[in-house]
């Protein structure tokens, strides 16, 4: 019998908001399924990138990639760039995974931007951490554009598009992963239909270890005050709009 969804669990972002950690924690549960790592076509076993990198491969490729070995397994695609998809792509996603559980983790736009910038500087630098500085200069402005900081900060616009097709999409606050990570994960599992009682002793032990493990932590490169000033100025409207629309409070940076 054909599966109802290609992806049973979707996490569409945002980038640098704990999506890799959430995937790691969900992957511990015996009822979930992560597709095989086909890097560089996919990004590890977490991000299929079908709708942005790989649409030319066709729906059958995506379906084959995400089909688990057992009929009761729930397939996962956690691609943060999906938050930037067009309406047409999201409509296609809905046709392929009509009853998927969809999650969107939001983070203080400035804190997220700093983390993303550090990631992009890491990709370009080979020097020791102590000598890499993010200064307000032409290089910063170039990387700011390359990292699509403004695009990734448009939480309300992205959520509005996704909710046209998935009205029950779950909006999560990254800061809850810091204040009470176990509650955060168990709440997500509850929304998916995963039960703690289904874990054996080995999985429980792994859960405890991974719960406090950073995944893809960025280098703590120095960020100049002028950069923070710029980010606060250009991202404040997105922050305030998101807090108002979603009933959240971003307090990561005070």
Automatic annotation (TrEMBL):
Q: Which InterPro entries does the protein's record reference?
A: NST/OST, P-loop_NTPase, Sulfotransferase_dom
The membrane spanning regions, by residue number, are none
Q: Which GO terms describe its molecular function?
A: sulfotransferase activity
- Residue ranges constituting the Sulfotransferase domain according to the UniProt record: 8-188
Which UniProt keywords are listed? Glycoprotein, Transferase
Question: PANTHER family per the record?
Answer: BIFUNCTIONAL HEPARAN SULFATE N-DEACETYLASE_N-SULFOTRANSFERASE (PTHR10605:SF56), HEPARAN SULFATE SULFOTRANSFERASE (PTHR10605)
Q: What's this protein's name?
A: Sulfotransferase domain-containing protein
């Amino acid at each position: 019998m054909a599966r109802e969804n290609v992806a049973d669990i979707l996490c569409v972002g945002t980038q640098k908001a704990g999506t890799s950690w959430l995937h790691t924690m969900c992957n511990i549960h015996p009822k979930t399924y992560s597709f095989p790592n086909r890097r560089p076509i996919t990004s590890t076993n977490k991000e299929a990138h079908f709708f942005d990198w790989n649409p030319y491969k066709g729906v059958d490729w995506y379906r084959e990639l995400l089909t688990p070995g057992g009929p009761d397994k729930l397939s996962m695609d956690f691609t943060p760039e999906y938050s930037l998809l067009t309406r047409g792509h999201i409509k296609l996603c809905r046709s392929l995974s009509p009853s998927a559980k969809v999650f969107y983790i939001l983070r203080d736009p400035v804190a997220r931007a700093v983390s993303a910038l550090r990631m992009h500087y890491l990709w370009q630098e080979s020097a020791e951490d102590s000598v890499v500085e993010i200064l307000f200069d032409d290089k910063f402005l170039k990387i700011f554009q390359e990292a699509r900081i403004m695009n990734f900060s448009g939480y309300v616009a992205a959520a509005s598009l996704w909710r046209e097709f998935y009205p029950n999409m779950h909006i999560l606050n990254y800061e809850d992963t810091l204040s009470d990570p176990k509650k955060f994960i168990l709440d997500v599992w509850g929304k998916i239909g995963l039960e703690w009682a289904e874990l054996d002793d080995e999985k429980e032990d792994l859960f405890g270890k991974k719960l406090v493990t950073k995944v893809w932590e960025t280098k703590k490169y120095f960020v100049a005050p002028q950069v923070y000033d710029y980010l606060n100025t250009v991202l404040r409207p997105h922050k305030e709009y998101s807090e108002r629309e979603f009933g959240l409070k971003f307090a990561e940076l005070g």
